Structures are given as structure tokens and as C-alpha cells.
Amino acid sequence: MEVKHYNDGCEKLSYQGGKMDTFKIKAMLAAVRLGSLSKAAEEFNYTPSAFSHILTSLESELGVSLFVRSSSGVRLTEAGERLLPTFSAMEECEEQLLSIANELSGHASGRLRIATYSSISRNLLSDIIKEFREQNPEISLTISVLDDLSGVLENDLADIIFSDDITLKSFEWTPIAEDRYFAVMPLCENVNGKAMALDELYRKPFIFTNDKSLEPYIDKSRFSEIINLKSEDDLSVVNMIKVGMGSALLPELVIKEISGGVKVCPVEPPIVRTLGFAYKKGHRTRALTRFIRLVKTAREK
């Protein structure tokens, strides 16, 4: 087996019986990770039509359809779902091969794929990521900010995920911070600034997101009115509160970004989520080891 480098920056993994262009596999996995051909094309600096042609070419080589394309994005076909673990394994094998080869030649290289929520990315990881890039400019870094992290590690769509203890409960994970929730209400609400009991919050229109950390603490059936927002876009929730649509419970990482236009008060009893990271055991690369070391150092400061 050999890895051949081409002028366009792509690699082809040659094997007995034919050639599989691993750039096409990387493109396919990016489309799965982002759920959008246009977003994946942007990540690779391709036009959407050129990127779509790459995936169509891969489907033609394999003789199966991998994606169902629609105006809302792309999703895997049944064949795509069955092939996804193999594609991921091929990408990982190539990365390990190149990583070992670079180590043997005295060069440090690799990749690191991080997946997390927007509030964690903005407020907990931005400085760490900046420092990591400064220390490791040779490592390719991808940050995926998602509404839903389920299946990301299992399907090898990221090397490490940062989330709350509810999302990470099925993994061996490392806690790094606690994040307290606050009640956020329109300015017209008459509150005295003291801690608000949940019973009082139940009597107000409530904006409910996909935040699973709240589920053990609140009873949705008790709210007088619920507005369901099928997202974890916290800043959109804040804007809805500012125009008087309802109240919400938001974590401190989000509260620190609010410049005004709402009332904020503690909740009694307190609601706290624990934040941390998890990665797939047996898949700890050199790049991931360096990043985890940096995260732990930042936590100790």
C-alpha cells in the first residue's frame, strides 16, 4: 500500500485491485457531518456544483447512491449508512499511516476535529483553540458547532466532543466546568431581583429548546404556555425574550453574552449543568493528546 501525493493537494490510497480517491471520502464525510453540500463545499473551498460532482463521481465508482438530496440538505441513504463506518475507518487508517510516517521522518502533523455547542465554543474553548493553533500550526483543525451531538463520536465525525453531562453520560468523560442556569425574562416582568422559584416560572409563557440538561429539573406539563424552539440557538431565544414572547432558563455561558434588554435572576433551587469532554477510547491521536493536555492546563489555572 502506498500514499501518492498530487499537485492538487489530494491523496490517493492505492491498493491491489484499484484506487480509491480518499479526497472523495473526506468530502463525503464532511457532507455527512455538516448535513449540507453547500457548507461542506465552503469548507473545502469548492463551489457547490463542483463539490456535488465529486460526490456523484464517488457514487458512480461504487455503483450505489450515498445521499438523498433535498432543499433542506442531505441525508444518507440506506447504502450510505451501511458504508459510513467503512469510509470513516479508511479515513482514520490513512491519517494514522501519514501520522506514523511523519513521526518517523521527524515531522509533526495530523488533524483534530472538535464538535460542541455554540455557547461552549464561544465562551469556553475559543482561547484554548487559539493557543492550540499557535502552538501547533501544522495540525489541521476543524470545529463543528452543532445543535445535536448525538452520534457524532459513534460515527467518527469528530475526535472529541465538548458538552454537558447529560449528552456525555454514555461515555467515559472528563468534567471541566460547572454552568449555572438563570431565569431570563422580558423587561416588563415585575421581579424583585431575588432568586425565582420554579413554581413562579411555571406561571409564565416559557420558551423551550432542545436543551436536555433541563429535562431532569423541570416539568413541561406545568407551564401555562410553551413555545417550542427546535434548536439550541441560545441567542435566538434571547431575542424572542426581548420582544416579550416569553421567559427561558439559560446557562451562565449564554448570560454573559447578553448586553441588555432582558431581566436575569437566579433560580431556586439552583439548576447546574456540568460541562466536560469525551473521546472514543482507542482513538487518541497525537494531536488529540496535545489538545487535552492544553484543556486540562487551562482548567487548573
Write the layout of secondary structure elements.
Elements: E1 2-5, E2 11-15, E3 18-21, H1 22-34, H2 37-43, H3 48-62, E4 67-70, E5 73-76, H4 78-104, E6 110-116, H5 118-135, E7 139-145, E8 160-164, E9 173-186, E10 196-197, H6 198-202, E11 205-208, E12 225-228, H7 234-242, E13 248-251, H8 252-255, E14 262-268, E15 272-279, H9 286-300
Keywords:
301 residues; 9 helices; 8-stranded mixed beta sheet; D-Maltodextrin-Binding Protein, domain 2; alpha/beta; Arc Repressor Mutant, subunit A
Q: Provide the CATH superfamily of the domain at 1-107.
A: Winged helix-like DNA-binding domain superfamily/Winged helix DNA-binding domain
- H/E series, N to C? EEEHHHEEHEHEEEEHEEHEHEEH
Poorly predicted tracts of residues: 1-18
CATH topology (level 3) name of the domain at 1-107: Arc Repressor Mutant, subunit A
Tally of DSSP helical segments: 9
Portion in beta strands: 25-35%
Broad CATH class of the domain at 1-107: Mainly Alpha
Helix- and strand-based class?
alpha/beta
Helical coverage, percent range: 25-40%
CATH architecture of the domain at 1-107: Orthogonal Bundle
Oligomerization state: single chain
Note the main sheet. Answer: 8 strands, mixed
Question: What is the count of β-strands?
Answer: 15
**Residue-averaged pLDDT, rounded?**
83
Distance between the termini: 46 Å
Global Rg: 22 Å
Q: Choose one word for the global shape.
A: globular
